[in-house]
From TrEMBL:
The chain crosses the membrane at residues 12-32. Pfam families: Pyr_redox_2. InterPro entries: FAD/NAD-bd_sf (IPR036188), FAD/NAD-binding_dom (IPR023753), Ferredoxin-NADP_redctase_2 (IPR050097). Residues 14-286 form the FAD/NAD(P)-binding domain. The keyword Disulfide bond does not apply. This is NAD(P)/FAD-dependent oxidoreductase. It comes from Tenggerimyces flavus. The keyword Cell inner membrane does not apply. It catalyses: [thioredoxin]-dithiol + NADP(+) = [thioredoxin]-disulfide + NADPH + H(+). Keywords: Flavoprotein, Membrane, Oxidoreductase, Transmembrane, Transmembrane helix. The lineage of its organism: Bacteria, Bacillati, Actinomycetota, Actinomycetes, Propionibacteriales.
């Protein structure tokens, strides 16, 4: 793995620099490496799903540790000549010059952002400590593991009621704690119709005993017994300032605008995975990375052909 020194170093020239080494970034690096492109992956080493013991819904990798998946992925891409930088990107200038916190500058013909998202967890005692263990966001990722258990859903977003309705499919015992989002009359009817009960009162935290969630604690002091909790926190993208500086457009939901291949509105810039789609799971992000890599390689090929034809043209 190349190491950045204290002085600025320009590495000329990678075909592609990939910012982010999660499922999307490594999948793209694998495809591009196998296409014999020169590729660098820059990753700061803080994946969103690191707190989880296992990942799910990824065919042939169900139950694997997220960190193990990344370790295996890094070894695979390195086998195709992909260079891995354990560092953080602090700026990208047109050209493209990718500046790293450690002092290195990598030059690239194309850039792919695969930096994912960061969960903005509510300041409720117990949530951060149990995040990814028995406090979750995605029922498709962790619903099976807590099936038929008493589950609580804390209202932290406008989609929390839908969350509670969805989670009802995994358990007959689901309680909704409105917190910041009271259900509308229609939503309250829907919750009652499927057997999701509302709990009045403000949530003060998640009760943890013997290294596991045992309930949801209210400000009144009452603890409502639960063995798992779901909530939908707001998301933040660490790549947003970099993408905005490059002139990328964002949609009405606040996510960078891309075409189906992940191409942004800025020339030479792609985005894949959660950075462009908050709903993307690990397997989806890997697929997004594959699609972006094929599109980038095609774009580079067209440029290579154009240069070759120009080289044959008499002055």
């Amino acid at each position: 793995m190349p190491e950045a020194s204290g002085q600025e170093v320009i590495v000329v020239v990678y075909d592609v620099v990939i910012v982010g080494g999660g499922a999307a970034g490594l999948s793209a690096a694998l495809v591009l490496g196998r296409a014999r492109r020169s590729v660098a992956v820059v990753d700061a080493g803080s994946p969103r799903n690191a707190p989880a013991d296992q990942l799910h819904g990824f065919l042939s990798r169900d139950g694997m540790s997220p960190l193990e998946l990344l370790s295996v992925g890094r070894a695979e891409v390195a086998g195709y000549g992909v260079e891995l930088f354990e560092d953080r990107v602090v700026g990208v200038d047109f050209g493209f010059y990718v500046r790293l916190a450690g002092g290195a500058t990598l030059k690239a013909r194309r850039v792919l952002f695969a930096t994912g998202l960061r969960d903005e967890l509510p300041e409720l005692p117990g949530v951060r400590e149990r995040w990814g263990r028995d406090v979750h966001v995605c029922p498709y990722c962790h619903g099976w593991e807590v099936r038929d258990q008493p589950i609580g859903v804390i209202g932290t977003s406008a989609l929390s009621v839908h969350h509670a309705l969805l989670i009802r499919g995994w358990s007959d015992d689901v309680l909704y704690f409105p917190q910041s989002f009271e259900p509308s009359e229609t939503e309250a009817t829907q919750l009652a119709a499927v057997g999701v009960r509302l709990v009045a009162g403000t949530v003060a935290g998640v009760q943890v005993e013997n290294d596991r969630v045992t309930g949801v604690r209210l400000e009144s002091g009452e603890v409502v017994a639960r063995s798992a909790v779901f909530l939908r926190p707001p998301f933040a993208s660490p790549a947003d300032p970099l993408l905005r500086a490059l002139g990328c457009e964002f949609d009405e939901t606040g996510f960078v605008r891309t075409d189906p291949s992940g191409r942004t509105t800025a020339w030479g810039v792609w985005a894949a995975g959660n950075v462009a789609d908050q709903r993307a799971a690990v397997v989806t992000s890997a697929g997004d990375g594959f699609a972006a890599a094929v599109a980038i390689n095609t774009d580079l090929l067209e440029e290579d052909i154009e240069r070759a034809v120009l080289a044959l043209t008499p002055a």
